[in-house]
Design a protein that fits this description.
By secondary structure, this protein is of the alpha+beta class. It has helices at about 15-25, 40-50, 80-100, and strands spanning about 5-10, 10-15, 30-35, 60-65, 65-75, 105-115. It is elongated, with a radius of gyration of 14 Å.
């Protein structure tokens, strides 16, 4: 089994596939500016701050207790309560993995790595 692949529920899944599903799900949550460094918003953030996350490490995944454990790194917009935003991301990501991949999720850790302030 390659390091870039997870083996769960009898199938091998590329970590890139998991990252794509997680990124698309997280971006649907109101208040999320970007997932890691995967889009232009985070590229602009990285120009002005030193707290950006490289695209390849924006979503971490591993197999735990027969399901997937996910860690997603986010840039979020100022003004959204972190606890509610994280709960919404957890729910959206867990549902997307369950529906798209067909395996359970043991945990979704949300790491808020940077804050984006609206223009005034």
């Amino acid at each position: 089994m390659a390091e870039s692949e997870l083996y769960v529920s009898g199938i091998g899944i590329s970590k890139r596939v998991i990252s794509t599903v997680v990124s698309l799900a997280a971006k649907r949550v109101e208040g999320v500016a970007s997932v890691g460094g995967n889009d232009i918003t985070s590229s602009l953030i990285s120009v002005f701050t030193s707290n950006s996350v490289a695209p390849e490490s924006a979503v971490e995944s591993s197999v735990e207790d027969g399901g997937l454990r996910i860690c997603v790194h986010l840039a979020v917009f100022y003004g959204y309560p972190f606890t509610k935003l994280a709960a919404d991301v957890r729910s959206e990501v867990a549902n997307a993995i369950t529906e798209q991949v067909g395996v359970g999720v043991t945990a979704v850790d949300v790491c808020i790595d940077s804050l984006v302030f609206p223009k005034e």
